[in-house]
């Protein structure tokens, strides 16, 4: 029999958040082991429930959700997104500029498919949310990773970004607030990136899915509010700010210099039509979420569960010898560094395997986020305080053994 093989387009595609280490974790669970999972920002499994009014409105509207909608989405939720862009000071957005999707993830892939030809390049951060790199590769493009500087609070290295722009570069991806580092970029950094896009006529893809998950009174500025002479594609949704990952309700906003992008926008419209529409129950949640009580503020503000767990996780991590971590200003993640002199790790996926096997704690290795060296890993701080204390105690014990073995080697 002839072997049936996957497409060559998948050769450079990976998503290690749900990769081989997770498969090993599932196998161990099937064998009866209990795993502490620090690998994915799936809020519901850690007891973070969506606002009641979202759930109620989806239930009430379910009898009306059986038919297709407009391919870009229903009018009312798109109108709510339009009002949201106005509150973020993004100018010139009309209903027609808004696309609803099955989460921002679907829209990211759609936006890349509509844009890229073979050999086109897109600047993507390192570390990144790996779907961006995968979507560029799957669309025939080449992801080119610009470095974010850990010594500068994980802000993008503008000089590195500038060096990597070529005649083939089509766009720059900016993930702000950032996953996996938790960085929040100041206006000055955003303006420097916009100036590069302006000089080289590049599109900016702004992933702002965590724009309300902010700590220590931080404020988020949407990139698209800072210029109108550059084309911006802004991604957002309900998954994180509204603890509604499974509802798959996201949106994409086209703004800025649209006059020269008519053909690209036509491509977006074609792809939106081909998938018929986003799931309709999720669409019903958007207007209620954006117009209702913003309960995320209580979770991230003084005394809030997410804030307390961030502070606890950061302390527990940085108390471990040889572990440093920039304290996140936003999002749900930490991206700690293991001092290579103390932890000479050659293969960080193997490191994650060994931690899982020995201590039953599931993390994601740093190279899974296209980081350049095997010296980082990502954790979520979503488990409750007792579970976080237990998990980081196990990590500390594992690293203690790792240090001892390394010193003997």
Strand residues, percent: 15-25%
Percent helix: 25-40%
Largest sheet: 8 strands, mixed
Strand order of the largest sheet: 2-9-8-7-6-3-4-5
Which value, in Å, is the CA radius of gyration? 21 Å
Distance between the amino and carboxyl termini: 48 Å
Give a count of the beta strands, DSSP E runs of length 2 or more. Answer: 15
Mean pLDDT: 95
Count of DSSP H/I helices: 13
Morphology call:
globular
Residue windows where pLDDT falls under 50 for at least 5 positions: none
Element order: H for helix, E for strand: HEHHEHEHEEHEHEEEHHHHEEEHEEEH
Helix/strand/pairing category: alpha/beta
Walk me through the topology.
Elements: H1 20-30, E1 36-37, H2 52-61, H3 75-87, E2 98-102, H4 103-115, E3 121-126, H5 130-138, E4 142-149, E5 155-156, H6 158-163, E6 169-175, H7 187-200, E7 203-207, E8 231-237, E9 249-256, H8 262-274, H9 280-291, H10 296-300, H11 305-318, E10 323-324, E11 333-334, E12 337-338, H12 348-359, E13 361-362, E14 364-365, E15 377-380, H13 385-408
Parallel strand pairs: 1-13, 3-4, 3-6, 6-7, 7-8
Antiparallel strand pairs: 2-9, 4-5, 8-9, 10-12, 11-15, 14-15
Helix pairs in contact: 1-12, 2-9, 3-9, 4-5, 4-8, 11-13
3D structure, described in words:
The protein is α/β, with parallel strands linked by helices. 38% of the residues lie in helices and 16% in strands. It contains 13 helices and 15 strands. It has an eight-stranded mixed sheet. A three-stranded antiparallel sheet has the order 11-15-14. It has a two-stranded parallel sheet with strand order 1-13. β6, α7 and β7 form a beta-alpha-beta unit. α2 packs across α9. It is globular, with a radius of gyration of 21 Å. The N and C termini lie far apart (48 Å). The mean pLDDT is 95.
């Amino acid at each position: 029999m002839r072997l049936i093989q996957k497409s060559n387009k998948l050769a450079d595609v990976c998503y290690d958040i749900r990769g081989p280490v997770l498969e090993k974790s599932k196998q161990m669970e099937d064998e009866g082991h209990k795993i502490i999972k620090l690998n994915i920002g799936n809020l519901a499994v850690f007891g973070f429930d969506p606002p009641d009014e979202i759930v109620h409105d989806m239930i009430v509207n379910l009898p009306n959700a059986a038919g297709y909608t407009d391919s870009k989405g229903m009018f009312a939720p798109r109108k709510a997104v339009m009002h949201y862009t106005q509150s973020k000071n993004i100018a010139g957005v009309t209903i027609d500029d808004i696309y609803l999707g099955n989460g921002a993830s679907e829209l990211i892939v759609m936006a890349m498919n509509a844009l890229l030809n073979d050999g086109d390049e897109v600047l993507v951060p390192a570390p990144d949310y790996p779907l961006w790199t995968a979507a560029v590769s799957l669309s025939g493009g080449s992801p080119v990773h610009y470095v974010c500087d850990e010594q500068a609070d994980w802000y993008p290295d503008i000089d590195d970004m500038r060096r990597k722009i070529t005649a083939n570069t089509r766009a720059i991806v900016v993930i702000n607030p950032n996953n996996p580092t938790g960085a929040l970029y100041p206006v000055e950094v955003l303006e420097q990136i916009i100036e590069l896009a302006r000089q080289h006529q590049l599109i900016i893809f702004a992933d702002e899915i965590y724009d309300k998950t902010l700590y220590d009174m931080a404020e988020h500025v949407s990139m698209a509010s800072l210029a109108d002479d550059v084309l911006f594609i802004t991604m957002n949704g309900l998954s994180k700010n509204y603890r509604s990952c499974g509802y798959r309700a996201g949106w994409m906003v086209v703004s800025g210099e649209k006059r020269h992008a008519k053909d690209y926008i036509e491509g977006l419209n074609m792809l939106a039509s081909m998938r018929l529409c986003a799931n309709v129950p999720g669409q019903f949640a958007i207007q209620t979420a954006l117009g209702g009580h913003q309960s995320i503020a209580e979770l991230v503000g003084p005394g809030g569960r997410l804030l307390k767990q961030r502070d606890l996780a950061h302390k527990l991590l940085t108390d471990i010898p040889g572990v440093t971590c920039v304290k996140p200003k936003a999002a749900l993640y930490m991206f700690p560094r293991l001092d290579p002199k103390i932890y000479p790790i050659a293969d960080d996926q193997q490191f994650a395997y060994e931690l899982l096997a020995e201590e039953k704690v599931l993390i994601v290795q740093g190279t899974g986020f296209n980081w350049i060296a095997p010296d980082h890993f990502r954790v979520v701080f979503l488990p409750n305080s007792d579970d976080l204390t237990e998990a980081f105690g196990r990590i500390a014990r594992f690293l203690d053994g790792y240090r001892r073995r390394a010193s003997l080697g």
